Amino acid sequence: xxxxxxxxxxxxxxxxxxxxxxxxxxxxxxxxxxxxxxxxxxxxxxxxxxxxxxxxxxxxxxxxxxxxxxxxxxxxxxxxxxxxxxxxxxxxxxxxxxxxxxxxxxxxxxxxxxxxxxxxxxxxxxxxxxxxxxxxxxxxxxxxxxxxxxxxxxxxxxxxxxxxxxxxxxxxxxxxxxxxxxxxxxxxxxxxxxxxxx
Length: 198
Fold this sequence. Notes:
Elements: H1 2-13, E1 19-26, E2 29-36, E3 46-47, H2 55-65, E4 71-75, H3 77-88, E5 97-101, H4 106-112, H5 134-142, H6 145-156, H7 164-168
Parallel strand pairs: 1-4, 4-5
Antiparallel strand pairs: 1-2, 1-3
């Protein structure tokens, strides 16, 4: 990761970006961090971790507080797609975001069933092959409507309304979330009831 860290340090030192959103390991745990010129030495602690953090959401929060700042972000394929959606939805400005691309490893790609486990431009690392979910989709397509309903009801029954899906969603930018609306999502049920019925 020497090339990636060097490019980030250079971009900070030359003022190309005010800060770079990435992950560093602290007390054995990965955590999102904003690397800046003031803490440029911390870039050495940057990690590319298999744990998923919605770095695009971190970028968005910082960008909302500092709309004039040009910010960098370390992106994998999914992070880059999230940044593109944020730009497309006018949440951040294209000219104020610099992406530092790194590919996922094959284990992470397989776990996510990722069709593009790398960003368009890779600063450092080797691209791995995309993973197809065509076989699983074909199995779903072969199911009868009743089997599909049972399948999806089984999937929905696993939800404990923890909000994790919302928190990890890389393209979430709503000011208020429907998951917080008690009229739409009841709270206090463990496990919660399934909203749809057969």
